[in-house]
Amino acid sequence: MAKQEDVFKKIISHAKEYGFIFPSSEIYDGLSAIYDYGQNGAELKNNIKQYWWKAMVQLNDNIVGIDTAIFMHPTIWKASGHVDAFNDPLIDNKDSKKRFRADVLIEDYCAKLEDKADKEIEKAAKRFGDAFDKKEFESTNPRVLEYREKQKTILSRMAQSLEKEDLGDVKALIEELEIADPETGSKNWTDVRQFNLMFGTKLGASADSATDLYLRPETAQGIFVNFLNVQKTSRQKLPFGIAQIGKAFRNEIVARQFIFRMREFEQMEMQYFVPPGTELGFYETWKEKRLNWHLALGLGAENYKFHDHEKLAHYANAAADIEFKFPFGFKELEGIHSRTDFDLSAHEKHSGRKLQYFDSERNENYVPYVVETSVGLDRLFLAIFSNCLKDEVLEDGSERTVLSLPPALAPYKAAILPLMKKDGLAEYAQTIFDDLKFDFNLFYEEKDAIGKRYRRQDAIGTPFCITIDHDSLTENTVTLRDRDTMKQERVAVADLRRIIDEKTNFRNLLSKI
Q: Using CA atoms, how far apart are residues 164 and 497, in angstroms rounded to an integer?
């Protein structure tokens, strides 16, 4: 556990030191669980958005993208169920006065059981070497089976209790498992109670006439209320999808783990509208498609797994999470949900407007069913950043820190580095920069020894360093250094655009999906 904490501290420190993520309002001592993206973080975040948008909208002729407002009519949140049912189960520790999400305490306990199972597997793998059969060991080892069966039993009981709103049993489960305050070790708990997560605000010039509104807790409802507008103007036939990237806000009481759980965050969602009765087939299809999208990033198939929901949301008839192995364990990265016709039917009822589709093949009007894919952009940023940040020991015994991002996502595609300012090298380097900047985001730097500059570019994930020396002036060649291999080769200036594009183009990711 201590090692995991050290790794996570290094990730947070690196993110700040190299301009990826800063605590928001830091000079005023900040706000809890609110962060700002720095110059490199903004570039990486925008590139992740592009990868999602291109894969979701550009590559699918039956998916279109929109951008809806954060402020929405308050009745929308009544119709969606958020006013009545958007709650977290909270519990306080009487001794430490700290507040926790009861379900997260139980999930963390189960994560420790999974860690114990993983340790058994790791020990066996070392013992048996190449002869080790992981699948057979997992299915036959008594300790692994015991840990996982206990985990399943606990999560199933918790899900059933939350479904029935039996908060007394949730507390009883915490007490039976002897779960303690993770900071103080105290087991002196209050009762569990529900807390609504929506942020309230007002719209209007004066307090007397102002309308009570909410900051949207999700982006999906903006898609649902625009279903007919988009369907008619885009002339789409079912099945078709509507995609959106946007901010959402939740008053998380237990916001933690850096940008994993924040009060202001960004979602990338797609709602796929399908004929009734076909939704579960499309649900399985989108589960596979979304996992393939993640795998194309090259972060390791072993770092992903599906978690099927025991407790279904009020709108769903099937739901699963794609979980990723963060430094603090497997946690939800993306949700795939079969939302039935709940949302459109609810908005029909509360608005008095029909939200139906005429199916010419069936010759009937109906309310479409919906399959949703929803990935947290900030969580995905953390998954990529934490997985790609590595400390390497080189052949000469020296060390380097490298952020081995997929090249298409890197903030800068290449760094232009004149060996020195004088003798016309800086001017020649600037000419190369000015020529390539229309196609690529570039970094230009003259200061410090070339080795130090290489290390800084490794730390922010730049795929190429281009060094301009005296031979460049006479031969029109430069030294091209690869981030991952550190190999250096002499290439013609005229070939730079092609070489950089071949490695950093989004096509490299999209073609793997």
A: 61
392 is in an annotated binding site: no
Residue 493, marked binder: no
Q: What's the Cα-to-Cα distance from 173 to each of 76, 116, 474, rounded to whole Å?
A: 35, 20, 76
Take residue 14 and report the two structure tokens written for it: 């690196």
pLDDT tens digits, residue range 7-51? 888 999 999 999 999 999 999 988 888 999 999 999 999 999 999
End-to-end CA distance of the chain: 35
In degrees, rounded to 5, the angle at the alpha carbon of residue 249 between the alpha carbons of residues 245 and 254 is: 125
**Model pLDDT, residue 1:** 47
Chain-centroid distance, C-alpha 221? 20
Angle at 439 between CA 438 and CA 440, to 5 degrees: 105
Consult the annotation and say whether 151 binds a ligand.
no
Q: Return the ∠ at Cα 85 (arms to 258 and 150), rounded to 5°.
A: 65
Burial class (CB in 10 A: 0-12, 13-18, 19+), 378: buried
**pLDDT greater than 50 at residue 67:** yes
Q: Fold for domain 394-510? A: Rossmann fold (3.40.50)
Query: Which region holds residue 63: left if phi is over 0, alpha if psi is between -120 and 50, else beta?
Result: beta
pLDDT at residue 320 tops 80: yes
Find out whether 267 is annotated in a ligand binding site: yes
Tell whether residue 400 is among the known ligand binding residues: no
288 is in an annotated binding site: no
* Mean pLDDT confidence for 309-337: 89
Model confidence band, residue 207 (pLDDT cutoffs 50, 70, 90):
low
CB neighbours of 112 closer than 8 A, spacing ≥ 6? none
Task: Give the residue with greater pLDDT, 284 vs 253.
Answer: 284
Q: Where are the alpha helices (DSSP H) in 245-322?
A: 279-295
249 is in an annotated binding site: no
The SS3 call for residue 450 is helix
**Domain 42-70+218-390 bears CATH identifier 3.30.930.10:** yes
- Let me know: does 210 contact 202? Beta carbons within 8 Å: yes
502 assigned ligand-binding residue: no
Q: Closest Cα to residue 121, out of 104, 140, 103?
A: 140
Q: What is the pLDDT of residues 135-155, one digit of tens each?
A: 889 889 999 999 999 999 999
What does the domain layout of the chain look like in residue ranges? Answer: 42-70+218-390, 394-510
Query: Sheet containing 99-101: which strands, arranged edge to edge?
Result: 99-101, 87-92, 193-196
250 is in an annotated binding site: yes
